[in-house]
Specification:
mainly alpha; 5 helices; 8% strand; globular
Length: 133
């Protein structure tokens, strides 16, 4: 059952903690990396959340290849997370940032990719591709 929970909830949850507790702003600098060219690359908390979201989205797409009841629950929870993010983005000022827009888009991509992969896998499993030709 724990495998059915969308991992993107971690990035969204961290954003909620930062936005609602008055912690550091998502625009506040978190760390700076020095590149081999000598250029300083500053990263904000929001940048780190987007990087985390992208890594988690990658894992979510792999999770979408599973079949069975757990994958259906995973898809439903992913849709719920997207709707939750969309409502926060539209209605609450603390969530009207580009960082949260990117996280919301990642949840949408998770939903679309999950259903697409599942449908493609199901079509292959029952041989619909050959029946259509």
């Amino acid at each position: 059952m724990l495998l059915s929970i969308p991992l993107l909830i971690l990035a969204v949850g961290l954003y909620n903690v930062l936005a609602l507790t008055g912690g550091p702003s998502v625009d506040a600098p978190a760390l700076s990396l020095t590149l081999p060219s000598g250029t300083l690359l500053p990263l904000s908390y929001g940048d780190l959340l987007v990087i985390l979201g992208l890594v988690l989205l990658f894992v979510e797409i792999f999770k979408a290849t599973r079949t069975g009841t757990a994958s259906i629950i995973d898809h439903l929870l992913s849709v719920g997370l997207f709707v939750f993010c969309l409502i926060e983005l539209i209605l609450f000022p603390a969530f009207g940032t580009t960082i949260f827009l990117f996280l919301t888009l990642m949840t949408l991509i998770d939903v679309v990719a999950g259903f697409t992969v599942t449908i493609s896998t199901a079509r292959r499993d029952i041989g619909l591709d050959e029946a259509i030709r």
